[in-house]
Amino acid sequence: MGPTAYIARRLAYGVILLIGVLVLNFFLIHAAPGDPAETIAGAMGGATARMLADIRSAYGLDKPLLTQLAIYLGRVAHGDLGMSYYFNQPVIDLIAARVGPTILLVLAAQVIAITAGVAMGVFAARKPSGPLSAFVAVLSTVGYAAPVFWTGIMLVILFASIIPIFPVEGMTSARFSGGFVAHIGDVLYHLALPAFTLAIIFLAQYSRLSRASMIDVLGADYVRTARAKGLSETKVVFKHALRNAVLPIITVAGIQFGNLISGALLVESVFNWPGMGRLAFDSVLRRDYPTLLGILFFAALMVVVANLLTDLSYRFADPRIRTGGR
Amino acid sequence: MGVADPAAIATPEAISPLREAWTVYRRNVPAVFGTLLLVAIILFVLYGTFIYKGDPYEIVWAPQTPPGTEATVPLGTDNLGRDILRGLLKGGGPTLAVGAAAAIITLVIGISLGGVAGYFGGWIDDLLMRVTEFFQVLPALLFAMVVITLFSPSTITTAIAIGVVLWPQTARLTRAEFLKIRELEYVTAARSIGARNGRIMWKVILPNALPPLIVSATLTVGVAILFQAGLSFLGLDDPNTMSWGLMIGTNRQYILDAWWPVTFPGIAIFLTVFAVSLVGDGLNDAFNPKLRER
């Protein structure tokens, strides 16, 4: 299959998955106990009769269920995820304001985890029973067992009172004045701790995985050939072995994207990071269904896009998959 | 017949696979350590309250008493003056119970769907695997939050919510095992003597697919405990049920004044999940003959 056809097929599949999420959202609103109009209004008890009547006509709640579903999908297709009656704002605007910080946090954590994890795995693999290998084993257990929000709190205690070099709260400094570049620096400075906290879980997995995969690859024939040719050890490890050892990491990193978002919800709460996590939490407490389901849809969208990019980077990293199309 | 019990037909010299696995397991130092740690934690949670009595909600001493300064409150008090050790003893129950219940729900859904998909194959497999992929697109914690919001927070809702979001991995694993095992001779033999599909799936294939599923179930318990802790930390579990995550959540505002009310429950969660993962790794080594030679 050629690359264009392949991408088109993957895109179509992603779109179907997202429509599935919307259908699920629709049925979740109807599965909630009570009147769907009140559910959409936020079930705060404060919805006026006029508001409920507006919702009923906007969503066609007096029509058959399938017609209602069609109306709902049509509204979403026009970028209308409903109205948050608690925040008194369209859901799409609420999410648009919060999605950036979450993507920033998730990507930063992913980059830190992959870079540091692969680096540790590569060096540990050179001495499978050395001290770094033992450290990777310990780290992977700790990373699995320690609740991420608790690790975050421990880091807040550490960096707030013992070694105060990183800010432990928010995304920007209060009363910050400075140019655009200084502003980016300020955001990155605030990003350090939350991103590192979130990265720990995945760093643990990636280092364990890349160590195992690197040990496998270093024993392969083509690595022996590369060494026999007299290539330098650096070239053997980084050019010949690493390129092959990194393939399973790409797969796992793609699968983990949903878990990264789950972790980000908790980390945002610990560090007061102004992303979708805080919004999700508030909308759960206010029983603000339109916002919560909008967030679920956006999170699924992020996962679908991440999976698509993973597939593409896999094709890029592994020429064996590409050659079929040429 | 189904599958014969290996122990029943074994000659005295032969070792049953289960016994062999046990021999490997008990020589595995981290696994034995993990088992003992887990047993100790369960005993601590089950019987601790009989030795160290008292209501965890009762205000017993000055707020934020540091640990080790007062003999009556060995681990100190929280921001309201409640005994932290009482909280740890009382809060362990819901944490462990929800973890175990959620893991069971995960297994029931995952094994049923994965088993049917792997056994029948064809369009049933395609359909069920698309459904599984669909659920994997939803970030688990967020989806659990949605389920909890729909059905109001309680310990049971939390267990169901966690079970409902964690099953896809078990389903995929079960499917892979069933796909592999259904081609083996003893399955053909069972079919040739006229065993029905249901019997072949659950009485012939499932017992042979169990080792990897047991390992995965153990690790699922760990993940479910972390989920329960995360949800109660956010305040989305039943606020009237003491749990380790809730203790961290309610004391987090005061961490810069008092580190101990959040540190001890966190250590409790960490040790529990750590013990569970050591047991899981140990079972994996014991059940996996390829690893045994190392």
Q: What is this structure's SSE topology?
A:
The complex is a heterodimer of chains A (326) and B (294).
Chain A: H1 3-31, H2 36-41, H3 49-59, H4 65-77, E1 83-84, E2 89-90, H5 91-126, H6 131-145, H7 148-162, H8 180-218, H9 221-228, H10 233-245, H11 247-255, H12 257-271, H13 276-285, H14 289-317, H15 319-323
Antiparallel strand pairs in A: 1-2
Helix pairs in contact in A: 1-4, 1-14, 5-6, 5-8, 5-12, 5-14, 6-8, 7-8, 7-12, 8-10, 8-11, 8-12, 9-10, 11-14, 12-13, 13-14
Chain B: H1 6-9, H2 17-26, H3 29-51, H4 84-120, H5 122-137, H6 140-150, H7 155-181, H8 185-192, H9 197-233, H10 244-251, H11 260-287, H12 289-292
Summarize, please.
The complex is a heterodimer of chains A (326) and B (294). With 326 residues, chain A is mainly alpha-helical. Helices cover 78% and strands 1% of the residues of chain A.
Characterization of the model:
The complex is a heterodimer of chains A (326) and B (294). Chain A is mainly alpha-helical and 326 residues long. Chain A has 2 domains: 13-77, no CATH class; 98-322, Orthogonal Bundle (MetI-like fold), CATH 1.10.3720.10. Chain A contains 15 helices and 2 strands. Chain A has helices at residues 3-31, 36-41, 49-59, 65-77, 91-126, 131-145, 148-162, 180-218, 221-228, 233-245, 247-255, 257-271, 276-285, 289-317, 319-323, and strands at residues 83-84, 89-90. In chain A, helix 7 packs across helix 8 (180-218) and helix 9 packs antiparallel against helix 10. The mean pLDDT of chain A is 81. With 294 residues, chain B is mainly α. Chain B has a single domain (48-293), classed as MetI-like (MetI-like fold, Orthogonal Bundle), CATH 1.10.3720. Chain B has helices at 6-9, 17-26, 29-51, 84-120, 122-137, 140-150, 155-181, 185-192, 197-233, 244-251, 260-287, 289-292. In chain B, helix 6 (140-150) crosses helix 7 (155-181). Chains A and B meet through helix 1, helix 6, helix 7, helix 12 and helix 13 of A and helix 5, helix 6, helix 9 and helix 11 of B.
